[in-house]
Amino acid sequence: MRVLALARQDLRLTLRDRSSIFWIFIAPLLWVYMFGFISRSTPTRIGLLVVEQQSSALADRLVDLLRAENFEVTVVPPGGLAPAGKDAPPRSVTIPAGFEESIAARRHVALDLKEAERASAEGTFAAEIALHRAIVRLLAGEALGPMPPAEDALRVRSSWAVERAIPSGYHQSIPGNLVMFVLISTMTYGAGLLVTERKKGILQRLATSPLTRGEILAGKAFGRAAIASVQVGVFLLIGFAVFRIDWGRSPVGLVAVLGLFVLTAAAMGLLSGSWFKSAEAASGMGIVLVLAMSALGGCWWPAEVVPDWLRLAGYAFPTAWAMRGLHELISWGGGLGDVLVPCGILALFGLGAGLLATRLLRREV
Amino acid sequence: MALRVADIRYAYGKTVAVDGVSFDVRPGEIFGLLGPNGAGKTTTISIVSGILPPASGQALIFGQEASGGSGRARARMGVVPQDIALYEELSAAENLRFWGRLYGLSGAGLEDAVRRSLDLVGLADRATARVKTYSGGLKRRLNLAAGLVHAPDLLLLDEPTVGIDPQARLRILDVVRDQARSGRAVLYTSHYLEEAEQICSRLAIIDHGRVLAAGTVAELRRLVGEGPVVRVRGSIDGDGLKALAARCPGVSFLSADGDTASFAARDPDACSGLVRALFGSGLKLDDLRVKEPNLQSVFLKLTGRELRD
Q1: Nearest alpha carbon to residue A9 among A216, A210, A200
Q2: Closest CA–CA distance from residue A207 to any residue of chain B (Å)
Q3: What pLDDT score does B149 carry?
Q4: For B272-299, what is the mean pLDDT?
């Protein structure tokens, strides 16, 4: 209970600081939006040109089904001119004349999917899958009657088997900013608070209370973890409620990565607070260190877009491991087993920083 | 015995800060540790309160060591450090609640303790104001209240009146006296001689980490004799004055420090003889004062220099 009293005091003092309201609650929203918007990749909907050689109810039904697959469908009616140049969708499918009759007569019919040179392989692959799904649903509808998409009995989830997609948009900016802002919270507010307590003799006064040395150190660590947890909570909330990102299929894996990262960030805040001689130095140097670790750790841009040597250098920092763990879950559909290595290394970072901080704080308590 | 300090020693690297200090503090008494800055008072308090482990010797609080262990001994002790160890962003009541909780207080008991402590130091009407809006004197009073909130049996006060106005100082001294009257043992460090003389039942004079003398104020005064003390200021020659004192019956030379020198006279007649000898010596004196012996004279006799505020 006394340990919790210490942790609660740290959280209260941090939230009492007016600037913390901006940095903990408002800035993350702005940063996520800004970085997510800037780093968004391809349009969210793949463009597809549908050329109808002959109008028919079945051809129209196929177009509706393709639209339901979330394609940006542009229809060229019989005799119409297909758009050309850069504005034309990079893929087109042609519905041949006699499409409806051929299906009714159970005759072979071919839909021709063409791609422009500039079309991405991933987009074409997605278009092929969607086209197959639309055809199956069209034929099933003919046989069984139309079935609303929401009531589909069968759903197909796909993931990249060979290459991993490069995270972009909010899938990059939310975990990236989460990692950065959690460290900012602990290494500026958390560290500054500890320096102030050291300078004012509050830590020494704590040492004269009935608390044991272990309880004081645990209380200070939990205090920083509480600050970090609030920050994580803010990101989970805005990620879910505002930006609608999917946090992955493994809640246990997510809790493991975030939990260990929170503890690591808390230990780093403790280390920074026990190292620097003034709150200003702790905050100033803290922000410089966090920004450097964030850039190298892949918080600002995906680690996949930087040269190999830079990506490897990033793994010297906990930010890179936190990002890897989060991307495994959020961007690449991984589970608990996929985040064990990042979790283990985060734990080592946390342990190392915690032990060093404890050694430094022994002078005070 | 509330506190028993036995032959404690402590060094910061090669600098010896406390060198064999021993004393006892009984319930209901105010024991003063008097000495200049750097004498070893704060280090002694740090050892007693369990912050520093002594290199040798023992400090027992109600028979238990303060450092390590379950903290039972520390729970019976209230420490008021020289620093204002408070959270400036919180109000007085919030600060006291925080410290009270660490000593196991909660609920109505905690609220009562907070109210009582604020009343004791006269801050009840400022309970909700943030500490950063307080003057230095008010902060010192709250610093004291934080050491009292859990009603400790032993109070350790490390220079609790440093840098505050006389009114705030008197208030703090009144509170400390009341605490002793209610049966608490108080260890009080100061470099203010008059303050120590006013409130301490017994005291020890400490310098360079050693206790030079200990006893009641009266016992310590007797170290320089019952008679008056003569203090002169001017162009003085230490050896010459020593020789002059030796020629005056009933006069002993105490010290020469810079442009001042002090003598102890056995009685008023010896004092008159000394004054005559001084005026007849041809020395150029700017000031000459005759005083009753006090702790300043004791300190002068023991250390050869004055203890200045």
Answers
A1: A216
A2: 6
A3: 97
A4: 87
Q: How many residues does chain B have?
A: 309
Residue B307 lies in a domain: no
Chain A residues whose CB is inside 8 A of the B103 CB are 209-210
Nearest by CB: B89 against A16, A208, A211: A16
Q: Do B81 and A210 touch (CB under 8 A)?
A: no
Selecting from A9, A200, A209 the residue whose C-beta is nearest the C-beta of B103 gives: A209
Element (H, E) at A99: helix A99-104
Assess if residue B130 is contained within a domain.
Answer: yes
- Whether B124 and B176 map to the same domain: the answer is yes
Give B8's pLDDT tier (boundaries 50, 70, 90): very high
Q: What is the pLDDT of residue A160?
A: 47
Residue A41: per-residue pLDDT: 58
Domains of chain A are 2-40+169-361 (no CATH), 46-151 (3.40.1710.10)
Domain that holds residue B161: 3-221
Supply the pTM of this predicted model: 0.74
- The structure tokens listed for A348 are 């080592």
Q: Report the residue of chain A nearest B150, measured CA to CA.
A: A209
Rounded CA-CA distance A346/A351 in Å is 9
Write the residue in A204, A210, A212 that is nearest to B51 by C-beta: A204
How close, in Å, is residue A210 to chain B by CA atoms? 4
Asked whether residue B304 is assigned to any structural domain, the reply reads: no
Q: Are residues B106 and B135 in the same domain?
A: yes
Distance, in Å, from the CA atom of A226 to the CA atom of A325, rounded to the nearest integer, reads 21
Q: How far is A358 from chain B (nearest CA, A)?
A: 15
Domain contains B197: yes
Does ipTM exceed 0.85?
no
Residues B73 and B130 in one domain: yes
Number of separate domains in chain B? 2
> Six-digit token pair at B180?
């002793």
Mutate to test the interface with A, among B67, B79, B87 (most CBs of A within 10 A): B87
Q: Which residues of A touch B75 (CB under 8 A)?
A: 210
Number of CB pairs, chain A paired with chain B, less than 8 A apart = 69
Q: Is the pLDDT of residue B187 over 90?
A: yes
CATH code for the domain of B271:
3.30.70.250
What is the Cα–Cα distance from B61 to B73, expressed in whole angstroms? 6
> Does B132 contact chain A (CB < 8 Å)?
no
Mean pLDDT split into 10-residue runs, chain A, 365 residues: 89 87 87 80 69 90 83 86 77 89 87 82 81 85 66 52 70 93 92 93 93 90 92 91 88 96 96 93 93 94 88 95 95 91 97 94 79
The predicted-structure confidence for B95-118, as pLDDT tens digits, reads as follows 999 999 999 999 999 999 999 999
**Interchain CB distance below 8 Å, B49 and A17:** no
On whether both B120 and B148 belong to a single domain, the answer is: yes
Are residues B123 and B263 located together in one domain of the fold?
Answer: no
Residue B251's nearest CA partner among B228, B233, B235 is B228
DSSP A136-177: HHHHHHHHH----GGG-S-------SSSPPPP-THHHHHHHH
Chain A contact present for B74, CB below 8 A: yes
Is B65 in the same domain as B174?
yes
Mark whether B30 and B171 lie in a shared domain: yes
